Amino acid sequence: MYKVKQFIYYAMILFLGFTLVSCRGLSSGGEADGGGPMRVIFDTDIGGDYDDVGALGMLHALADRGEVKILATVASNKSPLVVPSIEVINTYFGRGDLPIGAPKTGGVSHDSGELRWPHYLAEHYPHTYQSTSEAPDAVAVYRKILARQPDSSVTIITVGFLTNMKNLLMSEPDGISPMGGAELVARKVQYWVAMAGAFPEGKEYNVHVDAASSSYAIEHWPTPIVFSGFEIGDEVLTGLRLIKDGPEDSPIRMTYALSIPQRAYDRNGRRSWDQTAVLVAIRGLDPYYSWRTGWFVTRPDGSNGWRDDPDGKHRYLVRKMDPKEVTYEIETLMMHQRQ
Asked: Taking 80 as the threshold, does the pLDDT of residue 38 lie above it?
């Protein structure tokens, strides 16, 4: 009988989730159920690439415009300067008190290689964390934040590895909440927007680098998931206008100014995989993209396929607006002057 009741509960949550996404969420954007700015937890592998920097800068710009309330900024990358980089950006935009977490169980460590922009940020901007290892457990941060939110009110945006998503789903009831992770997500999360995968099939870094976590998280996530695939951000090139006209003291501008000249293939701008996920999660689907509905198909090697299904709970973005127009809107947000 308990299993029957549990099945009915999750079925109701899933139905409500589709209704929210179709009627209010990504179609309209910019507002949480019940009014007020959208509530967001941002999960990033910032450090391995610098489009994460642009995405976090965008998120703060949208928060300053009243379109989003940032609940937490969580690291999915265990590299030492990931959390300091997040804190630098949060502090620059006047939100240095935002909760930050990092993986404590499993996870991947990936740094910026020869670009070394995290070292520059750590040396030239204020922050308190000296290493990612000093941050609290990401799962504990998620559970504390989610437990305090209204039901079906939180958007999770991931632009990195899916380690935290798997660990959150597998978390057990504790002093924070009597609900296990899957039940807590089903109760509190409106939808998950992920920069993950390549469509209709491919092998994308965020998914395959921790393939086991990716597979578990995507297959067991109880609310709708929207994927901004590799092919979407690959054609949106940002950074040149930011370097030329952006605020001189901005860590967003500084990161791009340091990094773009070091790689010949970035001479026309850096691909903006992570920014497209933020744009759609907050501003909504229209006028930027359409989508296809179905199921993300995970594979053991970290590659993915896709199965169309009008009743599926997964969606992936399909190009609609000219990428140059999307580029301009994203880069304008990246150039935001702190208040």
From this structure: yes
Say how far residue 238 (Cα) sits from the centre of its chain.
Answer: 18
Q: How far apart are CA 292 and CA 199, in angstroms?
A: 10
Give exposure, 278-314, as e/b (b: 16+ Cβ within 10 Å).
bbbbbbbbeebbebbbbbbbbeeebbbebeeeeebbb
* Dist. CA 72–CA 157, nearest whole Å: 11
Measuring CA to CA, how many Å separate 280 from each of 62, 86, 99, 235, 288?
12, 21, 23, 16, 8
Structure confidence at residue 27 (pLDDT): 58
Let me know if 8 is exposed, middle or buried by CB neighbors in 10 A (0-12, 13-18, 19+): exposed
Q: What whole-number distance in Å separates Cα of residue 146 and Cα of residue 127? A: 26
pTM of the model: 0.92
Mean pLDDT of all residues in 41-66: 96
